[in-house]
Hints:
The protein is an alpha+beta fold. The chain has helices at 17-20, 30-39, 45-48, 55-68, 121-134, 151-158, 184-193, 205-220, 262-269, 281-293, 327-330, 333-343, 350-354, 365-373, 388-396; strands spanning 4-5, 10-12, 72-74, 80-89, 92-104, 113-114, 136-137, 141-145, 166-169, 175-181, 199-203, 232-239, 246-248, 251-254, 273-278, 298-302, 307-312, 359-362, 379-383, 407-409, 419-420.
Amino acid sequence: MATVKGFKGMRFAKGDMNTLVCPPYDIISEEQRLKFIETDEHNIIRLELPTGENRYKEAGKTLSEWLSDGTLKQDDEDSIYVYEMEFTAFGERKSVKGFVSLVKLEEFSKGVVLPHEETLSKAKADRFNLMSETFCNFSQIYSLYMDEDNSVYSLIDACSKGEPDMSVTDGDGTIHRMWCVSDENILSKLSKLFEDKKLYIADGHHRYETALNFHKVLVADGRAEEGDLSNYIMMMLVNMENEGLVVFPTHRIVRDLENFDANKLLDGCSEYFTIEKQNNISAVEKSLNENYLASKCSFGFYDGASYTVLTLKDSVDMKNFLPDMSKAYCSLDVSVLHSLVLERIFGIDKENMANQINLTYTRDISEAISSVDNKKADCTFILNPTRVSEIRDVALAGEKMPQKSTYFYPKLITGLVMNKFK
């Protein structure tokens, strides 16, 4: 199954780590990017999210300079890097701990590394071009694994009792701690423990697929062989049963529809859903939470005039609408919304969704509501979060959820440790 091993991580050798790291590249605005560089000219954003006409070559040049002047340095020994995030979610202080290592790239068809979401071509092209100039993973893929007897967690937890080698606090107040572990005995035990495990990608589908394609190109060009470091990718691995795992929902904002009619929509929905009018967004959230705890498929709807909660009727069998999909896929709130409402009633097909012509996404409820109030959107749908067990079951069925079905929180910080494979 999964091949896991240590690596000589590339890390910042000087400077203040708090000003050198940054959030994931795909959630950073241009204003934020400039602010990071203004604060510290060596911020990792210059490598992870370069800009300009020759931005990828510029990233490669910057990387070479930072390695030459000692800003960055590769560790001398193969290591794994125990990584803990302490954060606040839903009013509670939580913690999630895993470890960063190299994982051998496997085709999804082998069933060793399993995806759960569709990907977009544009994002993969961007990452491919960056990898072509830097031969680096600057950020980790976030993946989950099953650890029924807690053997993996016990091992890495024991390695992180002392003071961390690195610790930073991000803008959201999340504390990121990392311990470097080079003990050959521990690395060997970890590698053995993963020989019978599958890995479920939580975040980083685009980067994983890009790494697969990049290695194939190197092999085809005679620049790499099977087993070379380009055949591995840096991953953060977390136990799927970790109590600190948090998945936020991603809400749907619908815009620019011709002849949008909320009443017509609700009339069309009445065949499949029970319809409850609510006074405000707080009442919607309360109702959605109750339905979530009762394992009912439910989502909120707002058209600028009123709030409504739609709950799938027990009599509706989603297999009638998605006959080729698994029970796990048919049970997802997002699958029901996309199939019965966005596609059947609004006529927003999968290609439209992929290109975000009439559909955009946000995890911020206030943004979803204000987009309608400000007349930038026709309506919005408020969703419950996807369960981690649902992610696993859909992946095991060999299927992928619609784009933006999950938002794991907090996001891994970029810049604590990197993988240079050439």
